[in-house]
Amino acid sequence: MPWLALTWKVLVIAVVLVVACGQSGTVPYAHGSGIDIASLPGRITFSDEMYVYAANANGSGLQRLTNGPARDFDPAWSPDGKRIAFRSQRDGSSQIYVMNADGTGQENISRSREDNWGPAWSPDGVWIAFNSARGTENTAMHGYVMRPDGSDVRKLSDIWLEYPSWSPDGKRIAFMSMQPGAAGFNPDYEIYVINAGGSGQKRLTHSPGEDGWPAWSPDGKKIAFTSARDDRGHSSDVGPFFDVYVMNADGSNQIRLTQGFGQFSTWSPDGATSCSPAAMA
After folding, report:
1. Among 65, 203, 209, 271, which is most exposed with the fewest C-beta within 10 angstroms?
2. CATH 3.40.50.1820 fits 3-278, yes or no
3. Which residues of the chain have pLDDT under 50?
4. pTM of the model
5. What is the pLDDT of residue 156?
């Protein structure tokens, strides 16, 4: 059964059909037909930034999975659909937990004094990639991998790394990285790709503000991501205005998919649709 994961920051989930692209003004923009939500198969997991939930992809069968005393969010399905990794602040800092898909057996697997988040399962389910401030007194974020029980922790590199995302073949990891001098409401983050062993770092985006939260397509040919690069053209309120973009895995052909608000994308298993939180019209 296909499984999806995202964080539900607002009230409506937007499902975007990934199709051939046209032009909207000077910014490349994808145009697609409507999607029959009721026909979508599988299940999704998401959070309201307090609890983690699961539901059928068509919106039915809603189930709350966590009942912690603090925030639980950033859930991620294991490849076999039997477990969910997520971020929890119940221990006083951000830690990575793993639980069964029905919410039972919740266990802290990061077990670090400093903050940890961004869990991402390797395609074979053997590793969980994540970002951690361990050893930095919460002054920097680096990339690590560990076993699903929290053992065999290995550091990927010394570059700033957040929200890793495995390529479908398990050979590469995409991530967002804060750039030197980044500050303010819309700090400069860019998207990079690194080999799963920590070598071969390559930068994919080059725009001011936040580019982040990458998500590989199931065929490994594209990466969906969030960008605030068009913030000034569309938003006059406080803070960055995010849209969902898609690009080729080498960073070329970056195209905007949303004309509203979108963030934290995840692909359907067949690669035909992309699911993201969206602002309610």
Report:
1. 203
2. no
3. 1-4, 6-27, 233-235, 238, 277-281
4. 0.84
5. 96
Which two three-digit tokens encode residue 223? 């990466």
Q: Which amino acid is located at 237 in the chain?
A: D
What residue has token string 């400069």?
A: 188
What confidence score (pLDDT) does residue 183 get?
A: 78
pLDDT of 8:
35
Q: 15 with 54: CB under 8 angstroms?
A: no
